[in-house]
Amino acid sequence: MNGPVAIILAAGQGKRMRSERAKVLHEVRGRPMIRYVVDAARGAGARTIVVVVGYDADSVRAALGDEPDVLFATQAEQLGTGHAVKVCRPLLEGYRGPALVLVGDEPLLRPGPLADLLERQRSEQAACLLGTTVLPDPTGFGRILRDAAGRFLRIVEERDCTPEERALAEVSPSCYVFELPGLWNALDRLDPGNAQGEYYLTDAPALLMAQGEKVAALHLLTADDALGVNTRQHLAQAEAIMQRRINDHWMTEGVTLLDPGSTYIDGRATIGPDTVIHPYTVISGTVRIGSRCRIGPFAHLRDGTVLEDGVEVGAFVEVNRSTLGEGTLARHLAYLGDAVLGKHVNIGATAVTANFDGERKSRTTIGDGARIGAGAVLVAPVTVGERAVVGASAVVLGNHDVAPGQTVVGVPARVVNPRPEPSP
Ligand code: UD1
Ligand code: MG
User: Fold this and answer.
1) CATH code of domain 252-415
2) In the chain, which stretches have pLDDT less than 50?
3) CATH of the domain spanning 5-219, picked from 3.40.50.720, 3.40.50.300, 3.90.1150.10, 3.90.550.10
4) Which residues contact 26 (CB under 8 A, 6 or more apart)?
5) Which atom of ligand 1 is nearest to the CA of 173?
6) pTM of the prediction?
7) Which residues line ligand 1 (CB under 6 A)?
């Protein structure tokens, strides 16, 4: 088994979400939270990732089905976070080395601090290092207890805190590095005699210390890193912070966002410099946007969309799984789905590609320099040739391709220049 390994706990239902779906499948910026945690673990250097599933296990497995380095351990009954780690033992039997242990409900964890934690654990040869943060409002988190000299003593869950302990602001966001196999033995000694009657992972560091092992708590994480999503309110906070991070990144890369607060960009999208994005634009899924594009206001770019350089997509335009060639314009109220548009195409207001016949989605191809009139409907599958013109409100029927240079008008569209001029 390749190390370092990461164990990500994702077996709980997340009762406070009041949802039928497993908590870790709730989405932040269009992606299940668990995927961000997997990315962070991998980004920190984890070579093997074990996700502990339980509640709605099949859906969690399916959500990670395309991750080649992810293995699953099943926790049939959710007896606590310590028990959840324990069920990974058969998979990791024989592995010696560091294990990053994380929870699947912290989508804002960045790989950098986790890599630091791994590095420190290695250089200090610690049995356990835990990352901590300090929060203005620590409600809900396990508190970090230290002695007068500042040395870590133990973690106390909020429900088990005395009033003095509850006032402590340093918390454990459940980011640990444990050395294996030493952890297994500590897990065997967990005692569920706490307010929730669960096997708490939070007790493991103190148990290791009691055995004379080296354990330390390092304030390496920010409040954002530590945002654990336990409620819908937390989910909205995570969404807002993720949005800010993504938008800041693209502004740093040279993209103008006129109103970052109302601009929603998926973490998988890429955007070229000097592109200007107007308010109320939603970019969801894997979308590639070139340089010098102008997008919005009120544009929706969906998964699989590619805008080459200099494209304009204006107000109330939706583009879905489509490619728009360089300099192509769709400035007002249009739908482009499953379409491939060449360069310098003009799409008139309210023109649409009718890509779905109720059963099947089909493709529309539009050649360079073609002009699609206002209100035109192109029924897919169909091809409109280079420099062809589709008149306003024309309906081009499926499989009735428009030849290069041809002009068609009417419903259904008929040709009005039977012998188009040859290309210059
Ligand atoms: C846990 C920690 C707390 C920490 C907080 C950080 C414990 C006992 N408490 O509390 O110290 O401050 O996270 O966010 O560890 N899970 C399982 N199996 C179980 C129980 C939980 O896989 O039997 C998973 C959940 O799916 C979740 C994660 O562990 O992804 C944390 O569980 P949650 O119930 O959110 O714990 P917190 O109350 O947040
Ligand atoms: Mg939690």
Assistant:
1) 2.160.10.10
2) none
3) 3.90.550.10
4) 14, 17, 19, 32, 33, 229, 235
5) 6
6) 0.88
7) 9-12, 24, 52, 54, 75, 78-81, 83-84, 103-105, 141-142, 155, 157, 171-174, 200-202, 228, 230
